[in-house]
Write a structure and sequence with these properties.
InterPro entries: Class_I_gatase-like, Dual-sp_phosphatase_cat-dom, Prot-tyrosine_phosphatase-like, PurM-like_C_sf, Tyr_Pase_cat, Tyr_Pase_dom, TYR_PHOSPHATASE_DUAL_dom. The protein contains 24 helices and 24 strands. With 719 residues, it is of the alpha/beta class. Helix content is 31%, strand content 17%. The chain folds into 3 domains: 214 residues, Protein tyrosine phosphatase superfamily (Protein-Tyrosine Phosphatase, Chain A); 157 residues, PurM-like C-terminal domain (Phosphoribosyl-aminoimidazole Synthetase, Chain A, domain 2); 284 residues, Class I glutamine amidotransferase (GATase) domain (Rossmann fold, 3-Layer(aba) Sandwich), CATH 3.40.50. The longest helix is centred in the first third of the chain and has 16 residues.
Length: 719
Amino acid sequence: MSCLDSALGEACVDLQAISLLLGPSLKAARQAGAGAGQSEGAVSLDGQSVKAQQWLPFEKQTPVSEGEQIFHICDLVFVGSEFGAANRDLLDGLGIRAVINVTAGSGRVPNHFESSGDFEYLHFELFDQPGSDPSEAARGSCEALSRWGQEGRRTLVHCSAGLSRSVTLVLAWLMESKKGLSLLDAVELVNEQRGRRVQCNPSFWCFLAALERRQKGWPPGTTPSFDFTRWVVEDLEKMGFDAALVRQALHDRADWVHFETLMDSVLEGCLPQYLIMISLDFVFLCLCIHCREYCKDSVAGVQVLGMSYLIVSHERRSPGSVLEKLFGEAPGLVYEVRRADLPAVWRVFEAEGVRALEIGATRADMRAVFHVGSECVLDADVASLHCIWEATSFQLERLQCSIPCVEEEEAGFKNRRAPPYQLTYAPEPTADAVLLSGARRHRVAIVRQEGSNGDREMAASFHMAGFEAWDVHMSDLLEGRTSLESFRGAAFVGGFSYADTLDSAKGWAGSVLFSPKLAAQFKAFRSRPDTFALGICNGAQLLALLGWVPGVEGSSDSLPLVEQPRFVHNRSSRFESRFVTVRIEKSAATKVWLRGMEGSRLGVWVNHGEGKCHFPTKAVYERVKKNQLIPMRYVDDDGQPTEKYPFCPNGSPDGIVGLCSEDGRQMAIMPHPERLTAWPWQWPYTPEAWTEGPSRLKASPWLRLFQNVRTWCDENGAS
């Protein structure tokens, strides 16, 4: 039995194809970006010139117009509209001799030239509306296209507008008969040939998704997608503990709870048009707690698509107490929808028979107001509710974290605001001329040791800035397979070298300092005025232990060991993994790493257990501040340097993030900017203005750090 046969009659409950509606073909997008409103020229179909359509965004697509009706997909298969099917000259010019007509009802298109005997027609009754099943038409058209292809007949598949039904049948043929193309590949091919995005109705997408799932043997929940910024996951989850407790059957497996119709119908109808801003299920949480979760992020200072919090109004439609209504668990979904989009969402619900209730709206005064019937059962400040919710978590924190740190975080928890991000420059991607400069690119060694990690992100960041990044293990240097002499720069990555058994980076530093060969090689590299070195996290601890930062004033020598600053255990007494905010300071590193970035406040990942900057002597600390050897500082929600937890995750004095050398060539920092150069996918939060609208950023702000050092290399030739 074929995959197509096995997909016939299958309920349209898959979400696999939904995101295909969301992204244009790569080629079409590039063509559209070449110049809005400009013609893309013509495509030649065996000597016949047919005008190609420029790709348009989803919401701007319109039915094809006269003169743009037939598109060659591949082999002997064409797709088009009723206008093309009625144009005898166009059909003759393209050599088409077979036609598949996919129309129905009052919109049925006649087989215009059937009586002439010059064309063979095949007609399928198929409505272009939710709930229509294209399986029979797909099976029949696949058989006909295969048969006519073997006979050498050119075939037109058409519907009314040439956008949905005809395209669906061609996609099914490409997947089933044309060497088993994947759904993504088939859509990409059709997009490229038509010059516009595929626009099938949701029921047809579900059929195509079921077909591919059968072909690939995929489980439910897998989602091929052009647009990975839109996540749709259909994991089969189950409730259980409360239900099992009520039944006094704690040993039992919990009941499975499915609400596929609700999820699928709404998502299929609303996601392609970007009607839904936020969607959260409350299978595991009651409605009341769900709504608190809904607004939690804004209380913590993260504006989630403009959502502040929810006001709930629920009519008393069935017997039950207020607690039962607000805290009862049952499967369901809560959506946030723009007021202007509400009519369109209601139409989707009504078409699919899904019962929905408008339960509330957002507010700007940060209060949560719950009504049951006409009774107001809760009117409270959201921040206070959030503190109550987190109280048990803080009790647990006292068992695993330094108590003063827990008390600091708890005391300031209610007053948290959005991160105070600020940019003093416009991030730009690296120019193609730089990326393609080949042998002229500067070489940087991405140095790692046993237990290191983050080397791939480090290499990618330097590569994105125009460097030639090399993977260099310490054993390569020790055994002479390569040498730092052949590199302009060295980047020492994070991780846990030697599992931090001897404290962070001490084993790594010992492998250099106690090897005469490596000690001499590292010293020679540091002494060359055309080189740079970056240490991040474990690499920063290494540069401190080697004495490369801050160094002796006025020379490239290292401080005596008893005076050397280093990074010690966090004040919280535990490993810290957080997304914090740092401010770029005016420092010696500005000349090499941070040019044009001073004054900016950016989010960055920290992942370390020993990141507190310790100064054995006050004199060295004062010199570091006086000579501006502090490249960054941790800041609070007001954008001011701080030692308070959790803004400063390690307790460094004055919020010190790291150190740099007197000439700025060596920089050691504990956070991980290399994990934030892929924009914006690696950022857990960004201001809306950075990702939306005309002022949205073209590249990650942290990419500039790596671009700056490349510019410095260009300006300071190899010695």
